[in-house]
Design goal:
Strand content: 5-15%
Largest sheet: 2 strands, antiparallel
Strand order of the largest sheet: 1-2
Order of helices and strands: HHEEHH
Structural class: mainly alpha
Length: 68
């Protein structure tokens, strides 16, 4: 029987933010908070990455039994 591991899909979010959207956000203008748009995008992607990892970790039910 195969286990559902749909929570692992959260790990694709940083990948899409860093690499998938890069050709579309590679712009100097507009400027957001004094940063070029590309730098702002990379900052947001860096902040979202730990959230995606935490969501993957919290969705893993197999860790709950072995962590104690």
């Amino acid at each position: 029987m195969r286990r559902r591991r749909s929570h692992v899909l959260w790990l694709g979010v940083p990948y899409l933010l860093y690499l998938g959207a890069l050709p579309f956000v590679n712009k100097v203008r507009p400027v957001v908070f004094g940063l070029p748009f590309l730098f702002f995008w990379l900052l947001i992607a860096t902040l979202v990455t730990p959230l995606a990892i935490w969501l993957t970790w919290s969705g893993d039910k197999s860790k709950r039994g072995s962590a104690r």
